[in-house]
Amino acid sequence: MINQVYRLVSPRQFEVTYQDFSLQTNMVVIRPTHLSICNADQRYYTGSRGKEVLAKKLPMALIHEGIGKVVYDPKGEFASGTKVVMVPNIPTEEDEFIGENYLRTSKFRSSGYDGFMQDYVFLNRDRLVEIPEDMNPHVAAFTELITIAMHSLTRFESRSHKRRNTFGVWGDGNLGFIMCLLLKKKYPGSKVISFGKTKYKMDRFSFVDESYQIDEIPEHVTIDHAFECVGGLGSQYAIDQSIDVLVPEGSISILGVSEYPVEVNTRMLLEKGITMIGSSRSGRADFENTVAFYKDYPDVVDYFTTLIGEVQTVSSIQTIIEAFEKDLTSSWGKTIMEWKI
Prior knowledge:
The protein is an alpha/beta fold and 341 residues long. The chain is 30% helix and 28% strand.
């Protein structure tokens, strides 16, 4: 069959390309229905990744957050119309100790490999996780972002000490919101404190126990473990602050991505015996855990609707561009594309 792929060929410019794909394989055919724009997609769209990176990566279909419906499964394991979340990570090998999202041989959609902006996506069946039929599709569309926080929690649980009375989360954006909510549900007896710089964003964190603007943290505040969800150069200040308020032998989970190296106060890191835990992306197990989380705590989906910013119906390349431009001017939440092209 002929498949249309909508690729970014240069900043702010998309073109349609055509691929011939055989149905005589074991791959499952998915029709995307809802796609979510990520900051990483925007860096490609605006050209802020730099000329060398763009020359290496483009042309490329964007988007690695999305859901769809099964169109065809050669094995018949997925019924036609089944709603699924698509896993963007594509491992090519297995390792006893290294997760699929850390293997250097793994491919990742919308990062040097075509993402989900296609008429149909052809996936190995282990790259699909079924989602509840009645789940809000706009929330389900950014499940991949939620899996990043879920993955970080898994690494935290296996690498940190067991005193978990108080958590601190730096970052008042989408990821910070998700991290705080996961912590409140996973550790209901613990206190969760959010740290941010924008009051109107922090006001949306209605479920946390305490919140402080980063330039107004009281001296008495201490935490057992920290989660950095800031990214960019701001992550340097978030890490420094978390080191200051952490009790000895606590941990800092780093989730924010920075294009440039940041400085770390290693003197206090060593003096307090702090453990730093890095995490990036996620794997199939994290998607399964996240879908199970939706089912165990159905009220979280209502909280996550707070993160829905713009919703754009996409029926042409022009409306794709409109969605990306709206996302650039949105001050809060995720931009969702209803994929009807």
